[in-house]
Structures are given as C-alpha cells and as structure tokens.
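Practice problem: predict the structure.
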Amino acid sequence: MLGTILVFFPYQRALKIVSQNLLGSNRVIVALEGPHFGLTGAQASKIVVGHLAVEGKPLFELRKIDARWHPLSLLTGKLAIFCTALAYDGMVECSIDGIPVLAKGSPFMRIKFENVNLAKYPEGALPWFNGMSGSLSGWIKEEASLETKVNQKGSFRIVMTAGEIKGIRVKGLPNLVLPYKEVLAEGRITGSKIYLDEILVDGENIALKGNGTIERGGDEQRVNLTLACENTSRLSPLAKGSVISVTGDQWHPTITISTEPVQQGKEVDALNHNMEAGLGL
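Answer:
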C-alpha cells in the first residue's frame, strides 16, 4: 500500500491541485509524457495542460519536469512536493506543502516563473488575441483546498516586458496590435473570485490603467475588466480617455472600446453640482 501511494499518489494529486486551482475549472485536461518514478521523486519529459473550451491547442506545456517529495512526511498524514520545469525557454518552480493523504487539509501552493519566452507560446490558443511576444515573470501564492473554494485565498504578481500583443479581438476594431514596454497585473484570490486590483500597461504609444475580476468555477468563468486610456499619441488607434471593457465568459469574451472618458472624482462631483443647479435644488 505504501509503495502504491509513493508511486501513484503524489504526481496525480499535485497535478490536480495545480491545474484546477490555477485555471479554476474542472474541465482541465492533463497529459503526461515519459514519466519515470522513484522512491523520493519523479521526472517527466513533458506535461501538456489543455481545456475543453479550447479544442486542438494546449493552454501551456512544461518540459523536463523534476518533482521531489519526502516519503517520511506521509507519517504525519501530509505530503510536501517541490517541482521544477522548463516553460518556453523559461524556468518554473512549484512547491505544494501540506497535501492531505489520510486527513482533510488545505495545501499551500507557490508558483514562480521567470523569463518565459512568450513568442514561443502557440498562436490562437487563447480567445483574447492571436499571439504575443516578450518575456513573462511573476509568482502566484494560494491556499488551495480541493474540497471547497469558499475559504481559498492567495495573491499574485505577473509582469510582461518588451513585447507586443497581436490581433487583439476587439469588437469593431480587428487586428489591433499593442506593443508594450511593460504590462503589470497584481491582485488577490478570495474564494472563487480573482481580484485584479491593478493592471498597468506601459505601451509604445499608449498608457492604460485598470482593474477587474474573474469568477472561477463552473463551466463558464465570468470576467469583468476595465482599462482606461490615460495617455496616448497620434500613432495610437485609441484616443485619450477611451475605455476598454472585457466582459462575459473568459473563454469567449467580448472586448469593446468606448470613446467616452470615465468620469471619476472631481468630474463626477462637478457633474452632480451642475445637475442640481439646473434643477434648482
């Protein structure tokens, strides 16, 4: 029984925790190639992660996976796993502490990725745009319970540098290309909802700032993001004050652009004052 647990339990449990909690869906497909198992670790030549909503293309691939665990930790009823892998020429490290074996628990997951080459990411794999380039780095920390998402919590920070997003699928504005110096996204994970507290885009001819949420779980994962154009140049297709909105199912989102600026702070107060004066209040 102990041998069976050591050989078959760790990597299956780890893949389930990482894929379902990272992507927030039960419709994830995981394929493992070239596995080799030992008493204290396992290796694989490739792991391919896909989703039923994206047919024929993987969401991402990992190569040269090396996972290590401590069998003696099973005596406490929990297991710790540390894994390294290559992702599009970049490095990914993942650790999962407190994986329950004989009792219930909430493992804590840490994922760190550095210098991922986005130009090697397959084009057309995501419904938001056709392709991209640049370098991706960042981290994700999450308490990843398998029983319920109500008590899950975590945080993340993702940075993309020196690249472009090609063929953004904006309604009424096809084939939009967004060159950027840096794209930053950071926020929190609370229950089944991801809060993107800050989204900053430092583009070649444009600057965007916004926030939003992504609702995980279920067949449809709802997304609601808003980015305002704070600065632009004559070379940009967007006017200053334009607002980009992303709504709907994240696998089939609707991306729209409004040319009316967002009214906030003093602008809203001034508008309310003028309306009250006009009404004689």
